[in-house]
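Q: Okay, next protein. This is Exodeoxyribonuclease III from Saccharomonospora cyanea NA-134. I've checked the sequence twice, so it should be correct. Can you predict the 3D structure?
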Amino acid sequence: MLTVSTVNVNGLRAAAKKGFHGVVPDHFRGRRRVSGGEGRAGRAARRTREPEGWHTVHAPCAAKGRNGVSLYSRIEPDSVRVGFGEAEFEDSGRYVEMWLPGVVVASLYLPSGDVGTPRQDEKERFMAAFLPYLATLRDKAASDDREVLVCGDWNIAHAEIDLKNWKANRKNAGFLPEERAWLSRVFDELGYVDVQRRLDPEGPGPYTWWSYRGKAFDNDSGWRIDYHVATPGLAQRCTSLVVERAESYETRWSDHAPVTATYEV
């Protein structure tokens, strides 16, 4: 069994203060476990960055205090890669992957965007460059007899069932028609599978992100933007997928919930 969790912690130092350094060996225990997510490493304690018994790779952003992605694996990787070959995003802390026996596991933090600003332009450039890379990764992995799993914060709610207030967000970043169409291309054109929707096609939710504003978390007024996206062979071998929503607002690590799936490999 391979168990994979995607965890957006909004910074490793902040997460360490909430016990993330203890969570890695305890909550993410298992002989064949991989976890990944957004986390700005910076000066985080060594036991958070490099916990005993784990193989880690960190991809911080060159701009201090911004993005970052990491992977923690119980399995020793055959190789690792930071970035996906696009110069603009090589040191932006957006993408990292591990080549493990039989599977490539990647951690993604797709730009969030902001309509009418340079941030949305950046998001569109990222998507345009990342789509062909996903095709190349799929083919390269298949030629090496490996499946692919890209986890993380995709920052797009794909369908109306993926966010509570979809009508009010039709003109907002994360639910724009062109963003949703791009994600449809990942699934329909490239053949990747949204593992959550394979197991639960009806929805609504389960949501993985809630704004800190108002009572969004208490009212479960959220978005599903954290995904497990897999090649078909691996997606078919997923036996469970759980959004680990915190019991209360006070016990959250961040505004995201971990998403954990188990695969028979």
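A: Here is a summary of the prediction. The first strand starts at residue 2 and ends at 6. Confidence is low (pLDDT under 50) at residues 25-32.
Q: Noted. On to the next one.
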